[in-house]
Write a structure and sequence with these properties.
Layout (H helix, E strand, L loop, with lengths): L5 H13 L4 H20 L2 H4 L2 H5 L4 E10 L5 E12 L5 E7 L5 H17 L5 E7 L8 H15 L8 E4 L6 H15 L19 H18 L9 E5 L3 H12 L3 E2 L1 E4 L2 E4 L6 H13 L5 H6 L4 E4 L11 E4 L8 H9 L4 E3 L8 H9 L3 E3 L1 H4 L2 H15 L5 H25 L6 H20 L2
Parallel strand pairs: 3-4, 3-5, 6-7, 6-11, 11-12, 12-13
Antiparallel strand pairs: 1-2, 2-4, 8-9, 9-10
This protein binds NADPH dihydro-nicotinamide-adenine-dinucleotide phosphate and (2Z)-2-iminopentanedioic acid (2IT).
NADPH dihydro-nicotinamide-adenine-dinucleotide phosphate binds next to helix 9.
Length: 450
């Protein structure tokens, strides 16, 4: 699909000129503009009032130096980022990513996506994202603490409970949120709801660790239901073995599916018997406590095979694929194999894991396909529920939060399909999510005065 509207073509040229090095951001903006083109054509005031011009330019980009010392006393310098993309419907909200691949481009594209995602959650949260090129792999706990404390020493001045509320993402889990929160609290001397994904003893919400993975599977179930189908009995391939992958595997298994794979950046394990709840406990201990590699699974469960350097998609046939690791991890060749093997649904747990040509191929062959901004929104939605509980200084029980999460995923699915149906393509979840997410933000920007 190419842009046809002259105004949007011009706008895209401006975005390219302003962000010449930000490849992923440009791909993301173009793909969103293509989706919302029919809305722009139907509503000239969006152009007249400059809504689109504002929408594609982050409200604020913060970039800072982070220095820390390793266990040998050597000084290291990393770059830290926070991109505050859009605050029309609420304070900036979005995760922090710690991975050596993080650049300004990464954070900018994720913040842009987050604005649309957060709009879909039904909650009052704007879009932001942050992170650093710090690599937590192989670092001691003291080194991770040193990094987190020094990262927060700069970040604290840009965030706040009603300004910007970061959370976890790749490389940032409960441990890192604790280190960041401890430092924030010490600097500002105030117990603010300034981060989510906190531990339950210190303001966290039950179900927040599970929420992204569970939500993704709730969403996949809704998609399958539209074709009179269900998850029970389905073979599922999952990539990643971190937070999102673990809980997607847990919920899929609880709903009667057989999860055949998990992976990490080194390789993939395929277990023909399925990854049971007991085997998943092994994974959680391996990845979250020992911080080991997925290859160790095959040593513990000899019927499983480990494939070094491979992603799951071409290693076994599946009915449902849940990419839950990182961006651009499912390409056109993978999509062709999934289709040839009879896959019926691809539901993204990660942010933009499927390349655009792979997405087009999957949609073109009649599979159900959901973009992460819809199907992984359960994580940030439950972060929103954590903020609600902090605001009323009460904790809801597990079933209460899980029910709210489930209801939110059903409502995101319904809103996405309704928008796609309104524009004549009921199965186009990409178009539906972009339009439904964009309209609420755009209408609010107009209400608040440009
Ligand atoms: P984790 O750090 O917990 O896990 C990430 C997993 O993906 C690990 O198995 C990691 O392998 C693998 N991975 C990371 N980078 C790469 C890479 N470049 N190539 C191959 N594999 C890689 O992160 P999360 O589970 O939290 O996040 C996974 C995805 O879900 C991301 O796209 C994130 O943006 C998205 N997401 C996360 C949410 C959350 O609440 N946490 C909410 C919504 C979306 P290894 O161990 O080798 O690093
Ligand atoms: O990509 C995402 O939605 C997240 N990493 C979660 C953000 C959040 O604020 O919970």
């Amino acid at each position: 699909m190419a842009l046809k509207n002259a105004y949007l073509i011009d706008l895209m040229k401006t975005v390219e000129a302003r962000n010449p090095n930000d490849k992923q951001f440009l791909i993301t903006v173009r793909s969103v503009l293509e989706s919302i083109e029919p809305v722009v054509e139907a509503r000239p005031e969006l152009i007249e009032k400059g809504v689109l011009d504002l929408f594609v330019e982050p409200e604020r980009i913060v970039k800072f130096r982070v220095s820390w010392t390793d266990d040998a006393g050597k000084v290291h310098v990393n770059r830290g980022y926070r991109v505050q993309s859009n605050s029309a419907i609420g304070p900036y909200k979005g995760g922090l990513r710690l991975h050596p691949s993080v650049t300004e481009d990464t954070v900018k594209f994720l913040a842009f996506e987050q604005t649309l995602k957060n709009s879909l959650t039904t909650l009052p949260i704007g879009g932001g994202k942050g992170g650093s090129d710090f690599d937590p792999k192989g670092k001691s706990e003291r080194e991770v603490l040193a990094f987190c404390q020094n990262f927060m020493r700069e970040l604290y001045r840009h965030i706040g409970a009603s300004t910007d509320i970061p959370a976890g993402d790749i490389g940032v889990g409960g441990r890192e949120i604790g280190f960041l929160f401890g430092q924030y609290k010490k600097i500002v001397n105030s117990y603010d709801s300034v981060l989510t994904g906190k531990g339950v003893n210190w303001g966290g919400s039950l179900i927040r660790p599970e929420a992204t993975g569970y939500g993704c599977v709730y969403f996949a179930s809704e998609m399958l239901n539209t074709r009179g189908n269900e998850l029970a009995g389905k073979r599922v391939l999952i990539s990643g073995s971190g937070n999102v992958a673990q809980y997607a595997a847990e919920k899929a298994t609880q709903l009667g599916a057989k999860v055949l794979s998990l992976s990490d950046s080194n390789g993939t394990i395929i277990d023909p018997d399925g990854i049971s709840a007991e085997k998943l406990s092994f994974i959680k201990e391996l990845k979250n406590v020992r911080r080991g590699r997925i290859r160790e699974y095959a040593a513990a469960y000899p019927r499983a095979e480990y494939h070094e350097g491979k992603r799951p998609w071409q290693l076994a046939a599946c009915d449902v694929a849940l990419p839950c690791a990182t961006q651009n991890e499912l390409d056109l060749d993978d999509a062709k194999t999934l289709v040839a093997n009879g896959c019926i649904a691809v539901c993204e747990g990660a942010n933009m894991p499927t390349t655009l040509d792979a997405t087009a191929y999957i949609q073109g062959h009649g599979l159900l396909f959901s973009p992460g901004k819809a199907s992984n929104a359960g994580g940030v939605a439950t972060s929103g529920l954590e903020m609600s509980q902090n605001a009323i200084r009460l904790n809801w029980n597990q079933s209460e939060v899980d029910k709210r999460l489930h209801d939110i995923m059903i409502s995101i699915h319904a809103a996405t399909r309704a928008a796609a149906t309104e524009f004549g393509e009921p199965d186009n979840y990409v178009m539906g999510a972009n339009i439904a997410g964009f309209r609420k933000v755009a209408d609010t920007m107009i209400d608040l005065g440009i």
